[in-house]
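We give the chain.
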Amino acid sequence: MMAMLSAAMLSACSVDGPTGPGDVDPLIVPNVQREFRGMWIATVANIDWPSAAGMSATAQQNELIALLNTAESAGLNAVILQVRAAGDALYQSALEPWARSLTGTQGVSPGYDPLAFAVQQAHQRGLELHAWFNPFRAANLSDTLTLAATHLAKTRPDLTRRYCTQLWFDPAEDDVQDHAMDVVRDVITRYDVDAVHIDDFFYPYPSSTCPGLDFPDSAGYADFLAGGGSLSRAEWRRANVNRFVQRLYTESHATRQTVRVGVSPFGIWRPGNPPGVVGLDAYASIYADSRYWLQQGWVDYFAPQLYWSIASTGQSFPALLQWWGQQNTQRRHLWPGLASYRISDGTGSAFAPSEIPNQIAMVRAQSGAAGGAPGNATGSILYNASSVRTDRGGFVTALRGAGGLYERRALPPATTWLDAQSPREPDFTVSESLGALQVSISADPEAYWWLVRWRANALWYDRLLPASQRTLTITTPDVDGVVVNAIDRVGNLSPNAVRQ
């Protein structure tokens, strides 16, 4: 009898140990593998989901379910869903209007709450759900005539700045930062998200459409100087961004201690760091002192966008990976972003299908390297979901197939600086009925997930369940041992509870 659970829900690994006739094989429980495996789901401009604005609620939900099934079957353990792209909301909000990407008209309800639905469906599949916010991007100028009346750019136009073809909320304005933090706190309070996340949009990137254009914040800088400030304009802008990143970290944890905070900056801090690296100076151009945030410990995970190849000379993936590990003096989680969207993309610089698996292998090798930097990477995040869904060049198949890097399930690394206390060993029973085993787990307020593992014919299988689900039917034949672990909100694992 073959196991009836889907291949996406199961993983197996061989277990060494001699057996013989009449022997009772002791249950040698394998260690739990730890590695973050994430995927960004971009909603702005319908990049990843929904595929088009104006789809029915059912069609949107079916598309999202398909994406989450893809993430699960690919061996991932987290999705990072963009919930606030430009002063709007992918969820029911009293603070901001509904996102235009849902219905085609900003402020119009899609008929359900996408974030609540996404959290529920992700957790059912053993996936973390991280809520991704853009704090300062307001709109394209072409959108200004169609912004909802409740959009902050409409209610407080004094907080916005026009830059080239875009409208921005000014990071220097206290009311901008206060509003952005109100939005983040609202989501943490009302939704069971596992983390909050921001990317690399702080001040706008330089635009070839408007070369040499500076961000129009002269009045704010003049007020700063008039109030006794002495920083240069560039230092003042960096201080504004620093203040927000620190607020995001401290105020998110004040709202819920165990929520994790992630930042995904541009992958180069400054050219020449490490030697030989060239490219955009994010420190000077978008005023992002990302190394400082990392070394201050203002993140729980740090995901520099290392969107270049291993063979690149000016932006060497291995050199940048190693350098960021060396900067990670607080030993926060380092999970670089990988450019899976570049695989077979039709350009002259397209990645080969082997590039992303090779980069993941490099991350894993550095993570386990003896004598390496103490803050080495322990996982990665793929951009974007569409490239995973379409299995660009077969890279997902290579990762998930026999002998692939994602063949076995992995749990995200525990965030022990938030909470280092392991949950207690769970209590459970195993009963047999109609040729199947029924695992029943007692409720435990410390548990957020259950990891259920079972051995059959020297192979191990597993399933990750949200704590609200306390039963599992196992149809695998010849099971001779079951193990259950409780996992708390930050990933701490309980001792093994074993039934044999």
Notes: Residues 233-255 form the longest helix (23 residues). The chain has a mean pLDDT of 93. The two ends are 21 Å apart (CA to CA).
